[in-house]
Design goal:
ChyE-like, GATASE, GMP synthase (Glutamine-hydrolysing), Class_I_gatase-like
């Protein structure tokens, strides 16, 4: 079974309360090096310390029961799966992971519990909420300009940030429609739904707020043969990523951690 690695309470960064419950990252990456890098990037760019983020690797086996009362919030990272793929083409592992994360999302929504889903979070969260997710608005690997909506400008995670900013993307599927009742927060020219909020406390981004250029370059190298770009062009893709200025999205992730850290 996939084991939740809990962290003992410890003294925290000054921006948080002296003691807090950890956040929980639900991960699905098979490659150990990439999984560990993703974990590190989430706690570092959110402003947390490593001992303030627990992790469960759902791809390793059935998830143990998760008690929401043990955590400040749930984070769903990216992954190799596409929720919109035909069911008959999905592996047994993908079917199990999607079922288990979907059931977790239902409990989170029922409690209006804090959740942040990045990239694959769109497929797992938005699909469960009734959105249409398909390959209409996939985006190539690189940086795109994100535009914050009027609703986004007053949202706690985006208020006061630039109206437009660059963010890293690279995805085959995306929301074609918003989940019913969701609040649209941001878009790009090539993908209308880059960020939305559901109820008060569930957030989903299509872009990657947990990635800096170094982390993205590492992930690009690991997924060079997964159909996101022509492998022969990998050097050009990485060069474009490293030359991009992407410094706003991490603040969105940090605001989520700051807003929902609880003791």
């Amino acid at each position: 079974m996939s084991r939740v690695v809990d962290r003992a309470p410890s003294r925290l960064n000054p921006r948080y309360a002296e003691w807090m419950k950890p956040f929980l990252l639900v991960a699905t990456r098979f490659d150990d090096a990439i999984a560990d890098a993703e974990f590190e990037s989430f706690w570092r760019l959110s402003g947390l310390r490593e001992d303030q983020l627990a992790r469960v690797r759902a791809e390793q086996g059935p998830m143990e029961p998760i008690d929401l009362r043990d955590y400040s919030g749930i984070i769903i990272g990216g992954g190799p799966f596409n929720a919109s793929d035909p069911y008959e083409t999905k592996t047994a592992v993908q079917r199990r992971v999607e079922r288990e994360i979907g059931e977790l999302v239902e409990r989170v929504v029922a409690a209006d519990f804090p959740l942040f889903g990045a990239c694959y979070g769109v497929g797992t969260v938005a699909t469960r909420l009734g959105a249409q997710v398909d390959r209409t608005f996939g985006e190539p690997v690189g940086a795109v300009t994100i535009e914050v909506s009027d609703e986004g400008r007053v949202d706690p995670l985006l208020a006061g940030l630039p109206r437009t900013f660059d963010a890293f993307v690279g995805h085959k599927e995306a929301c074609r429609t918003l989940p019913p009742g969701a609040t649209w927060l941001a878009s790009s020219m090539t993908c209308p739904v880059q960020m939305f909020r559901y109820q008060n406390n569930q957030y989903v981004t299509q872009f990657h707020p947990e990635l800096d250029s170094q982390g993205f370059a590492q992930r690009i190298a690991a997924y060079r043969d997964e159909g996101y770009f022509d492998p022969a062009e990998i050097d050009e893709v990485i060069a474009r990523v490293k030359s991009a200025t992407v410094d706003v999205p991490r603040h969105i992730l940090a605001r989520f951690a700051q807003r929902y850290a609880t003791d």
